[in-house]
Amino acid sequence: MKRYLLIIVCYLTCVNSENYIEDYCWRDYNGETPLDAYKCGTDRNGDPIYVGQALFENKLIPGKIHYGDTKVHFEFYRAYTANESVKILCARHPERFQWIKVKYYEVFRMTDKHFFQGGYEKGYDTYIGRAQSHGELTVGKVICSQTNCIRLTTIENGSWYDHDEFEILAYNPDAVLYQNPYLVEGAQTFVPYLLLLLMIIFLLAILFITLRRC
């Protein structure tokens, strides 16, 4: 199975363009959502859900981060939350990510897909999945050994649930790119819009002067 190993072993932080690896990275998360955070789901109020990472017992475990929440919610035999040593997935080109609908026993056989590794646990591959649950399109983890995969697990109201069918996150380095309106640092660039606005103002000024002379 082809895999794109995230920068998880060293647990790096991206703070500028030089730290981006393959157009994505994990930023430190303290409750403020970066503008380039990758939206993975939606809660019952219509607000976005992001994927986070928690450092827990020498493992990097992916879980969900609600918009405006300071914690990441994840599962490791039971439901946990963490607000320290938390990362949030950010993407320079989100169009290179794709969600593939699968059943848990199909994941291991899909050797032609670049499944996205979102955590680290010795002896296992850790992927990111999402599913509809309790009125949300929610996010959780998918664990695979060398011979089989376990169901997607997600957290809801302090309890964890598993899912036979779900979508798993993949990365496609050959996807067609569109212009990202955000700088890597998270600031939006308005230069193209400003130039267009100035051109419109210039044309209106010419039209106004011409009409006054008539």
TrEMBL record:
Membrane spanning residue stretches: 190-211
Endpoints of the signal sequence: 1-17
Origin: domain of life: Eukaryota
InterPro entries: DM9_repeat
Keyword tags: Membrane, Signal, Transmembrane, Transmembrane helix
Name this polypeptide is given: Uncharacterized protein
Protein species of origin: Photinus pyralis (Common eastern firefly)
